[in-house]
Write a structure and sequence with these properties.
Layout lengths: L2 H20 L7 E9 L14 E8 L5 E5 L6 H16 L7 H10 L7 H21 L4 H4 L8 E9 L2 H13 L4 E6 L27 H19 L4 E5 L6 H11 L6 E3 L10 H4 L7 E3 L7 H8 L5 E2 L3 H4 L2 H13 L3 E2 L9 H13 L6 E2 L5 H7 L5 E3 L2 E3 L12 H5 L24
Parallel strand pairs: 4-5, 4-11, 5-6, 6-7, 7-8, 8-9, 9-10
Antiparallel strand pairs: 1-2, 2-3, 4-13, 12-13
């Protein structure tokens, strides 16, 4: 059986489920598409460009029936908003929202040259909203439309950070106190002395790391820190190591090999998409499980890695890959090769995106673990009623029809979203070379 036939199996089952649930209902058309942008504050009241949320609202010919989709690309929100309003909105108005699969492919084909993050985020906004409409019209939670629950709740991993073993161990223990049995460690390099290589060069800062990254220091310190934390917290908590692919690939391979005696649950994002061929170099040298994919904007990046069993956890960022349709298919492909899911869930993903993660987790038999949803504060929940919650290390989504998240547009409007700026980096190595984020 080829991959195309494999993907047809879940699609046929889902179509039958929907047909049975909506038999006798009148025809439905897409009436309009709106783009809602909002920049709610974090729990401490601060405002950040990393919380600029872009939501697609697809309205239908049935009064009151609409769907919401996550299209939040915090570094290019204006481009995504324009793409939806100027290109996708006129393309989908008048079409049948139940034809999700056909719509997904036709949106991709509509621009001839397809792919790339801006297009994928825009399409994801529409795609997720169509699934929301489909499940609402079938009067069932989204996970039911995907085949039903395969688990009672979604186990998540927490986050820890530090630049010494003592700091990291304390941070891990705090995550454990909140109920997490899996904790991801993020190395925070200490301040470096200025070097001639970066003197006078433009600098940046993002994602909790400094503007200068010293690969040699990371290679020395990460294994030392991991060993210390394992001694302090013992073996009854699973530990992961995060990297963001920021180091030279051969340096990363050295780190992974040195971590193996301490039994990492997985090593996250060892390489950038451009460097995934290094997985064939890494795999024969270590049994440390590999989680990768949050930066993949091309669905084909996954196919070979899954088929050749070069990865163990799928780290899809759902808007980046183009929405729920492709994320679900990739999960199905992973099931055939015993590759598990570990969806990306950072703070710049909207509550709609977090909810979709949760529904996919509930329905996926090859679920592995879920990144703990970084949902900030009461204001976000006011804007997005139905926002998922985490209790004692487990994510819970609403059981209402659709993905369960709605939007209070008046509340969203109180926090206007600037569509300007937001560029990432640059970060540099001490020799002056730019770190390719």
């Amino acid at each position: 059986m080829n991959r195309r036939s494999l993907f047809a199996l879940p699609s046929a089952a889902l179509a039958q489920t929907y047909s049975n649930a909506t038999r006798g209902l009148p025809p439905l058309k897409i009436a309009d598409v709106k783009v809602i942008t909002t920049n709610p504050p974090y729990a401490d009241g601060s405002i950040s460009t990393m919380q600029r949320l872009v939501i697609a609202k697809v309205e239908t010919s049935e009064p009151g029936l609409y769907g919401l989709g996550c299209a939040s690309f915090v570094f290019r929100p204006g481009a995504v908003k324009t793409y939806i309003e100027k290109y996708l909105r006129p393309f989908v108005i008048g079409k049948d929202p139940a034809m999700v699969e056909d719509m997904y492919h036709s949106m991709h084909a509509s621009g001839l040259w397809r792919g790339g993050p801006v297009e994928n985020y825009a399409i994801a906004g529409i795609d997720i909203a169509l699934w929301d409409i489909k499940a609402k019209r079938a009067n069932m939670p989204l996970y039911q439309l995907l085949g039903g629950k395969t688990r009672g709740a979604v186990e998540c991993y927490g986050d820890a950070g530090g630049n010494t073993g003592e700091e990291m161990a304390e941070s891990v223990q705090k995550a454990m106190s909140r109920g997490y049995k899996h904790v991801r460690m993020n190395y925070r390099q200490g301040k470096l002395e200025p070097s001639p290589g970066i003197e006078g060069m433009p600098m940046g800062n993002a994602l909790g790391t400094g503007a200068v990254i010293d690969p040699d220091e990371w290679c020395r310190e990460i294994p030392r820190i991991f060993e210390h934390v394992r001694k302090v917290v013992g073996d009854k908590v699973e530990l992961m190591q995060h990297l963001h692919g920021q180091l030279p690939p051969i340096t990363t391979i050295q780190i992974v090999k040195r971590l193996e005696p301490f039994r990492p649950y997985f090593f996250e994002d060892p390489f950038y998409p451009e460097d995934i061929a290094y997985l064939k170099v890494l795999r024969p040298q270590t049994s440390v499980p590999i989680a990768i994919g949050e930066k993949f904007a091309n669905r084909h990046d996954y196919a070979g890695l899954i088929r050749e069993r070069l990865m163990d956890f799928i780290r899809i960022h759902i808007p980046t890959i183009g929405g729920l349709t492709m994320a679900w298919k990739t999960a199905c492909l992973g099931e055939w090769f015993n590759v598990r899911t570990a969806w990306h869930a950072p703070g710049d993903l909207s509550p709609v995106g977090h909810a979709v993660n949760g529904h996919l987790d509930l329905a996926s038999p090859n679920f592995g673990i879920q990144e703990g949803a970084f949902i900030q504060g009461d204001v976000v929940r006011e804007i997005f009623p139905g926002t998922p919650v985490i209790r004692n290390g487990y994510l819970y989504v609403p059981d209402s029809p659709g993905h369960g998240v709605t939007i209070n547009e008046r509340a969203a409007a109180r926090y206007p979203c600037s569509l300007e700026g937001g560029n990432f980096g640059p970060k540099r190595f001490p020799n002056g070379s730019i770190v390719s984020n």
